[in-house]
Amino acid sequence: PMSAKRQALADVITAPVLIFYLVFLLYGAISSIEYAITYGQVNYTPWAPPLAPIKIIMGIGILLMLLQSVAIFFKDLAKARGEKIP
Q1: Closest CA to 83 of 1, 19, 4, 2
Q2: How far apart are CA 16 and CA 69, in angstroms?
Q3: Which of 23, 47, 65, 66 is the most buried (most CB within 10 A)?
Q4: CA geometry: angle at 23 spanning 30 and 17, to 5°?
Q5: What does the CA dihedral 46, 47, 48, 51 come to, rounded to 10 degrees?
Q6: Is the pTM of this model over 0.85?
Q7: pLDDT at 48
Q8: Distance CA 79, CA 57 (A)
């Protein structure tokens, strides 16, 4: 088992990879949302529901995950520096 400080240091080293991935995922989501809204994209079924609402919800989810990852990164950075986190 790793100490809390060591685990925080490992998280600080790996978090930028996650943040980089989420930024590009968000970029793709925004592009997909724009396409769905511009062209009125619908699902290819007899029901043909519009895809824009679900793509917007997915984009919001990616954005929230990105914000949470940045918050955890700074929390782990403080832990790795030896600061007390409640």
Answers
A1: 4
A2: 9
A3: 66
A4: 155
A5: -140
A6: yes
A7: 96
A8: 33
